[in-house]
Amino acid sequence: MNGALNLCGALGRWLLGATERVGDGAVLSCRALSGLLILPWQGRQFVLQLYAIGVGSLVIIAITGAFTGMVLALQGYYSLAKFGSESLLGSVVALSIIRELGPVLAALMMTGRAGSSITAEIGIMRVTEQLDALEMMAVNPVRQVILPRIVATLLALPLLVALFDVVGLAAGYVVGVDLLGVNAGSYVGETIDKVTMHDLTTGWVKSFCFAVLLGCIATLMGYRAVPTTEGVAQATTRAVVVTSVAILIADYIITSFFL
Amino acid sequence: MNAAAAMIRTEQLTKRFGDMTALNQVEIAIPERATTVIMGGSGSGKTTLLRLISGLEPPSSGAIYFEGADLARISRRELYRLRMKMGMVFQYSALLNSLTVEENIAFPLQEHTALDARVIRTMVTMKLEQVGLRGFEHLMPSELSGGMAKRVAFARALAMDPKVVFFDEPTSGLDPISAGVITDLIRNLTQLTHMTSIVVTHDVHAGLAIADHVILLWQGEVIAAGTPESVRNSDDARIVQFIEGRPDGPIPFSRSDTSYMDDLLAREVIA
Q: Tell me: the pLDDT tens digits for A118-127?
């Protein structure tokens, strides 16, 4: 009986805490994005962040995209061969990458690469009182530190997803046509025939939503990190875990809307 | 000191963190154009007091008047307007580590003024000359020693020609020479620029040497306020212990409140 009560209490406390954090995050994100309405923007910071988040991720995204396209072609060929419909391979690879794997895998890679470093950097700025120093210089740290990182993520992730898609499709073609011997004409024809604007929109909407989640969660976790060494370590871990889970949940919801 | 000359004044200022009361009904008045040193041991609440009177943290109750405006009740915009008149030198300097020395000092000027880049450059050079670091413009904060970083932080705090500059433990973690340089800078620049300096420190010697006004905190309460002489000549056993640095006295060496013998005998065996 007592154990059950304790369990209920703990569950309640956890729910309250979680609700508070989500609300806090929403308020902070809105405060940051409202900074977009006020000129001048933190142009320099924005460019620096765009470089760190976007350009710095090109290679890792290209590699991930290439191997995803290659393995999809192998796996798709294996399955399709059982029905004798290898000629459909092009569309299977393209639809999987554009609708699903491009946005999700690119976002997850970015969570590990850029999200963690955003959280750690802002967390360390909290520990070393740099955020307080901004406050004392009458500069709003939300506008100076959080806003440029969120906006840079919003711009970078959809572009990186596009890169992922292109590299993935090309790699799929190489494996499907050159290695497995699918007819080049039917591979390309199937791809062009079956991929519609609707599929591209789905991918684009997903990558944009994932970017919002990644940018907001990573910056918030850093901004609210407990100002100690362990605090920053915990915040970084939590940012990666929470963002990854949020992306997978959001992916299901968005897919169900865009069937 | 009369109330009119007070730059910052607090009324029944209380700050709690959970169940712990960090500051209890603190009433202080900080005189204009002078150096006020807030001293106290670790955990006496002096850093908390500094964060409250600079508006970095809200009080649990009570009021903080900065030029007549209550920092706890004004809007963010209003607070930022007052912050233009404040500068702060943080304990670990808190330089923005993505910017060079020059960019750090220029940062508040770029944010708040429409000055030409060349004018800002001249002002940065002047501020660096004041702290004796001209020629170090292009170093990154990570390339500076602790004492140099603190001097740069000092120059940055002076960039907007503030009326009040706050110093959080300006000499802690520095070698004696660097500490002496910083103490001298505080004293000289306060006199030169007619600013109000507020220094939080546990360094009794440096503190008493530069102070025009001393505030001594003990367990979240003010136990002494006045000139360095009046504090030095005080009979209060707590003040004497702090000034002379005795390990035991009214502030006991042992922080345990249970009997030592009981603890030794009763402690369960750790498996």
A: 999 999 999 9
